[in-house]
């Protein structure tokens, strides 16, 4: 039972990130490396902020919100640092490849012109590791000999501040999804600022928006421990939607196209477009296979000879 | 990239195995069995130093044998190592796993399974096999060595040993008269690509997109690796006296081929196993990621500088920073966040 619940939680919590990973990252090794680097940068920021928390908690007892701000600042700084590192690496690689050698990491040079894709890849790395760190302890506790808060919450039917009863796994799953997607959007925003700030002075807007929304989301979630789960999550999802729309605008879309795309995706999901395309491709492949091309005949050659012997 | 997958695989394998063999309730206060007879923390440093001395000795001996062309001795040593590990230690280890998972496996079944596993391993390592199987058994060898060390060393000894070995790695590879440098130079001078070091061969650059070399390298690499299988598997891992010597921890680039010494595999996964044993899964993941990232940072430097570099110190240093700080600050912070459901 516990293991089943944990597995379900993991699947549900990481399904958006897995989908993004498979569509954008998995086919390119360089992107996987960048993904891991993003995770590492997030870890470093977490390390610094947790050290700050440790120092702070020695001085002021029972204060959590100030270190949270430090944590957020550290994360944004790490994003900026990662951006600068990537720029430096790209410049260095360009310098090397100009000398006529083969590029050490061709993918990085290729991604030079696709900065939003780069931001998505790295942000997804950050988001996944954040969600993993956020939920792993809780999920491990779910898998254990007992489920947190369950019998008591069922019997008494009231909300313990720190234990949301039977809906606790759902809240963790939702938080993990939010965290993943939010990290992607924040990275896109911050990197857009970093990219433009030297030329256009008014380009600080996306970065500031990312920072403010990050603060807002974090401090809203601090209300969770008082039991306001439903309003907090609805507001957070609203913020996420706004962030995604804003990222769409940054990438060159308009609000109209965004709404259109969402409507289209709903229609596709309702009419099982994915399944249709898969079937279509399979049909096409079988049609291709009916006309055997050269490699097939080559491969068929030795087997037929063995049959003859 | 080609190197990162096996390293990750090895580390995760060791982590899972350590988790499996670990009894459910004891997280600390490990009882130390066996060879070294150290039940108190006094001897920890001593053990590490003994280990270190043994390592230096065997490294120098191996290089000496190689210089004097005593190939037979090296080969014998390696074969005995791999047999001891893959057959005997694998048997004991799987016995342990089955016991702690309370799986009732009869003795003949277990013997049959390990015999299959080990014999295939020995054959594929020392004779010929397909490349995948060969690589798989190289990884298994490293993982089993790491498991052996974890199960037999006290917690702190592992860290001291890792520290010492990183230092030794730097000395052996970078100083002008270091044995590994001598080895690499001799091999280069003789021009044989397959000097008896145990090296994980990846047949590509770290970052080449896989789509471009899906077919061509397969065809070109396979014969060369097949010819290499006989001398390559130098598993400087365990002797019959069951001690370690990891001679060849270096990353080497030969014509775009990255080679990672098996000793690196062993020590990465040794560290990860120790982390899994002594702390939470969270720390383990942090260490895994930081280790892989350290390796990714090391590899381009190797490709750029075109020389052998020690691959151990940098990743292990990053991972150690994470490990120790996570004990102090990281895990409590995360716990705080998680219990309050505060997004960060």
From TrEMBL, chain A:
GO biological process, one term: Notch signaling pathway
Annotated TM spans: 29-54, 117-136, 170-191, 203-222, 228-249
UniProt KW Cytoplasm keyword: no
Source organism superkingdom: Eukaryota
Record's GO cellular component terms: membrane
Keywords: Membrane, Notch signaling pathway, Transmembrane, Transmembrane helix
Mode of membrane association: Multi-pass membrane protein
Keyword Transmembrane helix: yes
Location of the region described as Disordered in the Swiss-Prot/TrEMBL record: 283-309
Protein location: Membrane
PANTHER family per UniProt: GAMMA-SECRETASE SUBUNIT APH-1
Family assignment from sequence similarity: Belongs to the APH-1 family.
The protein, known as: Gamma-secretase subunit aph-1
Organism the protein comes from: Caenorhabditis japonica
Automatic annotation (TrEMBL), chain B:
A molecular function (GO) term: aspartic endopeptidase activity, intramembrane cleaving
Lineage: Eukaryota, Metazoa, Ecdysozoa, Nematoda, Chromadorea
Entry superkingdom: Eukaryota
Bias kind Low complexity: ranges: 223-236
Record's compositionally biased regions (Polar residues): 203-222
EC number(s) on file: 3.4.23.-
Entry protein name: Presenilin
Subunit organization: Homodimer.
Database matches in InterPro entries: Peptidase_A22A, Preselin/SPP, Presenilin_C
Organism per entry: Caenorhabditis japonica
Transmembrane segments: 47-66, 73-92, 104-124, 136-153, 159-180, 281-302, 314-334
An annotated GO BP: calcium ion homeostasis
């Amino acid at each position: 039972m516990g293991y089943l619940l944990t597995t379900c939680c993991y699947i549900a919590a990481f399904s958006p990130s897995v989908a993004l990973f498979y569509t954008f990252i998995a086919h390119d090794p360089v992107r996987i490396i960048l993904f891991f680097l993003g995770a590492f940068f997030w870890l470093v920021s977490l390390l610094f902020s947790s050290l700050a928390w440790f120092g702070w908690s020695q001085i002021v007892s029972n204060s959590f919100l100030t270190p949270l701000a430090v944590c957020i600042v550290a994360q944004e700084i790490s994003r900026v640092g990662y951006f600068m590192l990537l720029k430096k690496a790209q410049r260095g690689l360009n310098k090397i490849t100009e000398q006529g050698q083969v590029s050490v990491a061709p993918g990085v040079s290729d991604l030079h012109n696709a900065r939003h894709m780069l931001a998505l890849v790295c942000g997804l790395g950050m988001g996944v590791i954040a969600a993993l760190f956020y939920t792993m302890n809780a999920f491990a506790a779910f898998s254990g000999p007992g489920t947190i808060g369950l019998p008591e919450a069922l019997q008494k039917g009231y909300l313990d501040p720190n234990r949301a009863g039977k809906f606790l796994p759902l809240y963790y799953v939702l938080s993990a999804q939010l965290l993943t997607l939010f990290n992607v959007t924040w990275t896109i925003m911050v990197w857009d600022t970093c990219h433009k700030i030297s030329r256009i002075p008014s380009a600080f807007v996306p970065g500031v928006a990312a920072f403010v929304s990050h603060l807002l989301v974090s401090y809203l979630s601090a209300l969770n421990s008082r039991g306001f789960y439903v309003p907090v999550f609805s507001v957070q999802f609203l913020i996420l939607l706004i962030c995604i729309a804003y990222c769409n605008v940054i990438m060159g879309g308009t609000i109209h196209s965004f709404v259109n795309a969402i409507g289209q995706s709903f229609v596709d999901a309702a009419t099982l477009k994915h399944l249709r395309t898969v079937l279509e491709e399979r049909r096409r492949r079988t049609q291709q296979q009916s006309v055997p091309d050269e490699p097939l005949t080559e491969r068929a050659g030795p087997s037929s000879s063995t049959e003859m012997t | 990239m080609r190197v990162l997958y096996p390293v990750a695989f090895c580390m995760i394998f060791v982590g899972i195995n350590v988790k499996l063999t670990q009894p459910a309730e004891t997280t600390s206060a490990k009882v130390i069995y066996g060879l070294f007879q150290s039940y108190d923390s006094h001897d920890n440093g001593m053990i590490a130093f003994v280990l270190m001395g043994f390592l230096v000795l065997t490294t120098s001996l191996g290089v000496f044998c190689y210089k004097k062309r005593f190939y037979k001795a090296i080969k014998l040593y390696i074969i005995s190592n791999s047999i001891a590990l893959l057959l005997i230690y694998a048997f004991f280890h799987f016995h342990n796993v089955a016991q702690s998972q309370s799986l009732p496996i009869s003795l003949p079944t277990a013997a049959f399974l390990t015999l299959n596993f080990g014999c295939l391993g020995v054959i594929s390592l020392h004779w010929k096999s397909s490349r995948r199987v060969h690589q798989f058994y190289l990884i298994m060898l490293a993982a089993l060595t790491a498991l052996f060390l974890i199960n037999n060393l006290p917690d702190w000894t592992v860290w001291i040993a890792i520290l010492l070995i990183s230092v030794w790695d730097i000395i052996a590879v970078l100083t002008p008269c270091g044995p590994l440098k001598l080895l690499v130079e001799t091999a280069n001078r003789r021009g044989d690509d397959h000097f008896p070091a145990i090296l994980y061969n990846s047949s590509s650059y770290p970052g080449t997109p896989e789509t471009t070399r899906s077919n061509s390298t397969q065809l070109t690499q396979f014969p060369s690796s097949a010819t290499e299988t006989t001398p390559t598997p130098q598993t400087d891992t365990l002797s019959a006296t069951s001690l370690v010597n990891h001679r060849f921890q270096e990353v080497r680039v030969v014509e775009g081929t990255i080679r990672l010494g098996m000793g690196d595999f062993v020590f990465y996964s040794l560290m990860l196993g120790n982390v899994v044993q002594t702390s939470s899964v969270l720390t383990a993941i942090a260490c895994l990621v930081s280790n892989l990232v350290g390796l990714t940072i090391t590899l381009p430097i190797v490709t750029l500088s075109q020389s052998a570099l020690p691959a151990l110190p940098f990743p292990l240093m990053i991972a150690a920073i994470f490990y120790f700080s996570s004990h102090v600050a990281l895990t409590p912070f995360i716990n705080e966040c998680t219990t309050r459901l505060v997004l960060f």
